[in-house]
Write a structure and sequence with these properties.
This protein is mainly α and about 160 residues long. It has one domain. Helices cover about 80% and strands about 0% of the residues. It contains 7 helices and no strands. It has helices at about 1-15, 20-40, 45-70, 70-95, 100-105, 110-135, 140-155. The protein is elongated and about 60 Å long.
């Protein structure tokens, strides 16, 4: 349940900021990329969470259009998107974040620093490539998020399944 609250708060907060709409889309693209990056190549969870974020952004956009110029078609679009969101809930509920807490807590132990260094040494080339992508974040926010997620996954040793 808290996953949905977090995702909804992220979407609503980023969509309602008094900034250019492109910034909101950049945040969405980064977040979807990050989720894809922390997932393994067959991760249905990261794909499902990315889909839910895209749907939430679409619903937020639909609602803002409903407020600005309410039409029957906009209301129907919003209701259809809400139904798609509800249909996607079961796939996200299967996501398990319990191992993330364990992985992060283990990094803050005496052996954690050794593990972090070992993870860096084992994956240094990929992390360096990800770092270079992150430095050019404004070129493609999805790729930036993906590289951030991949670096996080490689350093922490945790994967979103």
């Amino acid at each position: 349940m808290w996953k949905f609250v977090f995702l909804a708060a992220l979407v609503i907060g980023s969509s309602s900021m008094e900034i250019e709409s492109s910034h909101s889309m950049n945040l969405k693209n980064f977040t979807v990329g990050f989720l894809a990056g922390v997932g393994n190549s067959t991760s249905t969870c990261s794909t499902s969470m990315g889909n839910v974020i895209n749907i939430l952004y679409k619903i937020t956009g639909d609602i803002s259009l409903d407020i600005k110029s309410p039409t029957l078609q906009e209301t129907i679009n919003t209701l259809n998107d809400l139904q798609i969101f509800v249909n996607n809930i079961p796939s996200v509920r299967k996501c398990d974040f319990s191992a993330l807490n364990d992985a992060l807590m283990s990094l803050f132990t005496l052996n954690g620093l050794d593990q972090l260094v070992q993870n860096y040494l084992n994956n240094g080339e990929q992390i360096f490539n990800d770092y270079n992508t992150i430095l050019k974040c404004n070129a493609n926010y999805f790729n930036c998020g993906f590289s951030s997620g991949t670096a996080f996954r490689l350093l922490s040793g945790w994967t979103l399944n």
